[in-house]
Amino acid sequence: MNQKIICYDEDLGIEAYSFTGVSQNFPNHFHDYYVVGLIEEGFRKMVVNNQAYTLEPGDLLTFNPYDNHNCEGIDDSRLTYHCINLKKEIFQPFTGTELPKFLAPMQSQTALAEDFNRLHQLIMNEGDKSEKETLFILLIEELLQNYAQDKQNQMLPAPKPIAVICEYLEAHYDQKVTLDQLCKLVHLNKHSLVRQFTREKGITPYRYLETYRIVKAKELLEQGCSLIETANRTGFYDQSHFTNYFSRFIGLTPNQYRNIFAKGNEEEDASK
């Protein structure tokens, strides 16, 4: 059975994904939020920030924002995977203004698997609010204590030219951006720019731009925007290209993703 379910939990303010029996491969991409997920079934090859890993049932995934990652199945293995997406501001009650950084993207056979599964089930089944909140707080505290980096050991920011390019791409994601424009911006030739950017970010400038467009497209779809409007406002040259790209990265079509939030938007409109 190939099944993909996404649920938005209004009590916690987080998305929960559940993929069952999935054979789809996911190309190199990133998110602008944290991801915590658990492999239930299946074996996968995964590359995160140019480092290779082999995933198996019981492994917990912990992605930081902008961690580049891709994964593909091993042999004919089908993936059953559950995850929650955590916006940066969720960590403020735990860490203040400092954002945490997970030390590694995979925690092998962790004891937290049982707690994570219980929380995920409560979210997917619209369980008791108090129990969800309690499990969520305990899970975040355990993750930070066991798997996050101390503040004083945080990694240095990206070298200036790369940071400038990222900032430019994020500010102009709704426009056509060329390699020539980026070269003029940081005074590098095309070869040097692509090489330095890919070495630092683990992803090409073009893929970074397309991935950021998906990030912004998700925000618009959550607000109920049409597919055509979303594609136009995020720099995709047509709806077909947008739909294909979105489906490859998210595992759902844009319309399927938008429908998850449709009920909440209707209730909000009715209350005005």
Task: Please provide a written account of the structure.
This protein is 45% helix and 21% strand. It folds into two domains: 151 residues, Jelly Rolls (Sandwich); 112 residues, Homeodomain-like (Arc Repressor Mutant, subunit A, Orthogonal Bundle), CATH 1.10.10.60. The longest helix has 19 residues. Helix 2 packs antiparallel against helix 3. A hairpin with a 4-residue loop joins strand 1 and strand 2. The chain is globular, with a radius of gyration of 19 Å. The C terminus is likely disordered. It has 272 residues and is an alpha+beta fold. The strands form two sheets. It has a six-stranded antiparallel sheet with strand order 1-2-9-4-7-10. A four-stranded antiparallel sheet has the order 3-8-5-6. The chain is built from ten helices and ten strands.
CATH topology group of the largest domain: Jelly Rolls
**Element pattern in H and E:** EEEEEEEEEHEHHHHHHHHH
Poorly predicted parts: 266-272
The tally of structural domains comes to 2
Going across the major beta sheet, what is the strand order?
1-2-9-4-7-10
Relative helix content:
40-55%
CATH-defined superfamily of the largest domain? Jelly Rolls
CATH architectural group of the largest domain: Sandwich
Structural Rg: 19 Å
Q: How far do the termini sit from each other?
A: 41 Å
The percentage of residues in β strands lies in 15-25%
SS element count, helices: 10
The total count of strands amounts to 10
* Largest sheet entry: 6 strands, antiparallel
Mean pLDDT: 88
CATH class of the largest domain: Mainly Beta
Q: Given the helix and strand composition, which structural class is it?
A: alpha+beta
- What shape does the CA trace take? globular
